[in-house]
Amino acid sequence: MSTVFSRLGRRRVLQGAVAGAVALGLLLWWLLPLGEKPPSGTIVFSTGTPRGVYQEYAERLRTELGKDMPNLKVKLVSSAGSQENVQRVATGKADFTIAAADAVETYMLRHGTGAGRLRGVARLYDDYVQLIVPRDSDVHSVADLRGKRVATGLPDSGVRLIANRVLAAAGIDPQKDITPLSDGIDTGPGRLAQGKIDAFFWSGGLPTRGLVGQAEKDTFKFVPIDGALIGKLHTKGDAARYYRATNMPESAYPTVQRGDTVPTIAVSNVLITRADMDPRLTEWVTRTVIKSRDGIGAHVHSAQLVDLRTAIYTDPLTLHEGARRYYRSVKP
C-alpha cells in the first residue's frame, strides 16, 4: 500500500513540476524572448529637472532596463524638460526621452533639426498643469495673475510652453503683464514659501515629488484652470489640440485639496527615440517599459497608468519599427 501511495505521490510531484515549468516558460516568454542574447552598449536618456516626474521615472526605468539587459549602460542626463528633450533626441544628443505631446508637435511644426527622424516608443501617462499660489493668496483665477511675479518654468521646458499659452488665453501677455521668472519644480516651491514669487506653473504627473513635501505643510493652494480657457486654446489650433479639460483628482495632494478636485489641463507624455535607433534594442526597451509598470508604479504613481492597450498611440509620432515589433508580438 505504501508503495502505491509513494508512486502516486511521485506522479503528482512530477505533474506539478511539469505544470510549473510550463507556467515559468510562458512567464519568461512574456518577459524576455527565450534564447535571445540581450542587447548591450550605451544609450543616453534625457530626463528632466531634479524632483520632477521625468527624472524619477527615468531613474526607476534604468534599474529595470539593467535587470533585462545587464550589459546595457543607460546614461541619464538632466534637462529643462520636454522642449529640450525633443531637441536632444532629434539632433542625436540623446537616444531616448520622455516629452509631452504638445512639445513634440511644436518642434515638428517649427521644422526643428531632425524633426522627421523622431519616432514614438510608448504613450506613458498624462501631465497635469498645476498652478500653485500661497494658501492666503488673493489669486483665484489665471486672470488674477496680472501684475504678479510668476514662474513659468525653465526656458526650454514643456512647462514654459503650456504656461505661456494658458496666460495668453486669459488675456495676459507673459512678457508684459506679469513679472516672468524661470523657476522649475526644483526651486519654485521653496521660493513660493519664502515669498520671493507669487505663483508658479508646473506640468507633471500626479503627485509630483517636488510638491509632496510642501503639500504636507499645507502652505499652498491650486488655482483652477477652467474649461473656457481650454476652449480658447483649442481655437488657436496647432499643438494646443493635445490639451484636454480634466480635473486633478482629490487624492493627488489630499492635505491641500481637502476632498476637492481641481479643474485643469492634461496632456499626454510619450517615450520617444529616433528612426535610426536599433530596432532590436528598441523592442527590448519597449518590453521593459510595459512589464515594469507595476514595479515602477509602486514608487512613481503616474507610471501605474502605462497600459499596453494605449501605449501604441504615440501621436503625433509614428511608432518606431522596434516598438511595433513588440506590440505585434503580444497582440492577442
Based on CA atoms alone, the radius of gyration comes out at 23 Å
Question: How does the major sheet shape up?
Answer: 10 strands, mixed
Number of strands: 10
Task: Extract low-pLDDT stretches.
Answer: 1-8, 17-30
Task: Compute the number of helices.
Answer: 13
Element pattern in H and E: HEHEHEHEEHEHEHEHEHEHHHH
In whole angstroms, how far apart are the ends?
48 Å
- Helix amount: 40-55%
What percent of residues are in strands?
15-25%
Structural class call reads alpha/beta
Mean pLDDT rating: 90
Layout of helices and strands:
Layout lengths: L1 H30 L9 E6 L6 H16 L3 E6 L4 H9 L5 E5 H9 L8 E17 L14 E3 L6 H12 L9 E3 L6 H6 L5 E6 L4 H9 L2 E3 L4 H9 L8 E5 L5 H4 L4 E13 L4 H13 L1 H5 L10 H4 L9 H9 L3
Parallel strand pairs: 1-2, 1-3, 5-6, 5-7
Antiparallel strand pairs: 3-10, 4-7, 4-8, 4-10, 9-10
Helix pairs in contact: 2-10, 10-13
